[in-house]
Amino acid sequence: MDGLVREFSRRIAPAKPDEARADDRFVEDLGYDSLAMLELQFALEELFGLEPIRGEQAVRMTRVSDLTQFVRAQFEDGFGQVPDAGVIELLRTQYPGSGE
Asked: What is the pTM of this model?
């Protein structure tokens, strides 16, 4: 799960980094703006079958690790599902990332 959050954080990042680390900041390190954050939220909602991420929750997510913790908490609360390979590949096609 953590790896997929990092992967899609990298794939959608406007700065197009080679990788996204847990301590990367969305705005300062990965170049995210509000539109890119919404795109990432929608992708992760689709990927993990999460409930929509509310604005006040999203504002608190400044690092990749914050988003990873949020996804884990959703699973612990009984929301979301482990994505199957088909969904992962579909989203990889939609968000090819840098150098792909």
From this structure: 0.89
